[in-house]
Amino acid sequence: MTSSEIKAKRGKTVGEPTPERPPVPKTPDRLWPPEPALRRKRRLVFRIFRVLLTLAAVALAIPLVWAMWEIYMGAPWTRDGAVRAYVVTMAPEVAGRIVELPVRDNQLVRKGDLLMAIDPTDYRIAVANAQATLDQTRAIAENSRIESERREKLTSLSTSDETKQIFKTKWMATEASYRQAVASLEQARVNLERTRIVSPVNGYVTNLLAQLGDYVTVGENKISLIDADSYWVDGYFEETNLEGIRVGDPARVKLMGYRQIVRGHVDSIARGINVSNAQPNSQGLATVNPIFTWVRLAQRVPVRIHIDQVPPGVILSAGMTATVEIEPRPKPQPAEGSNVRGQLPPQPTAVPPPPKAAPPPPERRKGAPSPARP
Questions:
Q1: What pLDDT is stored for residue 4 in this prediction?
Q2: Domain span including residue 170
Q3: Into how many domains does the chain fold?
Q4: Confidence (pLDDT) at 297
Q5: Which helix (H) or strand (E) holds 305?
Q6: How far is it, in rounded angstroms, from Cα 131 to Cα 121?
Q7: Cα 355 from Cα 61, distance rounded (Å)
Q8: Is residue 140 part of a domain?
Q9: Cα(317)–Cα(19) distance, integer angstroms
Q10: CATH code of 130's domain
């Protein structure tokens, strides 16, 4: 199909102008009916309600924020806390092979329970040898004593003083050997007793790596115990909060893994922490770190919390993260002249006594000569 046919089909010819659309007559603006009075009244009430709701929310938020601020500043608390406990390390005092290991990892043991036994064969033999040496030295010492006493009873015609001295010295030497044999026997018995290692405290076996048949040496740590009676909590408070903390204040401890609250009280406050400044270098000079004068970070001081009550179901483990909150007690009014915050009471200033008045000069009689001036 040619272009002329297409244009003819559309009803147009080449060069024919496009007919313009008739202009739309302009109509006057549509006038809306006036807003009903009821609708205006509703909008006004809604606006007033929004204003009142905003004012009520602000009025409620102000005391709430103030109460939270009082709790934050009045009751010292910190999220930087940790559960602590004493660790008892058990190291054998004799060497040998482990023949008994009746405990397992994380087991609760009582004071006096057997933890580990070392092969006692060599130490029993050592006790027998020491006992035989003791019997031998005892016999030699007894014989030397009898010979020395026999020489002492003889006269100088039968034996000389030198011979008596020789036998007496021999007796003293054998007595010293006997006492040495007694000490060796005691040491052998102690070593035999040390082949059995018992628990010195009530605690939990932790990180047990020893196995039956291992060879242990003297001083090698093989068993570690967590003292079950030594748990406490360390709360690291900023120094700006220490003013409101006193020994004996009740404390609330919230462990990260439990919802229950652990109760306790302030046991003590640390009296020193490490300071990086003033540490001597290799030349003995003080090392002082530069800081910004307008930025001062508060140091954290450990506060020890004694645990009074542990809720059922809570398992304490050394190293757990805790949040500590101190419930301060009302501060008593300090008595007059008492020691406040470690300061000595003011000493009364001694008032010097007033100077004594000079005695009046004696009256001079008429006609009496005046005293001579120096």
A1: 56
A2: 120-194
A3: 1
A4: 82
A5: strand 300-309
A6: 16
A7: 70
A8: yes
A9: 95
A10: 1.10.287
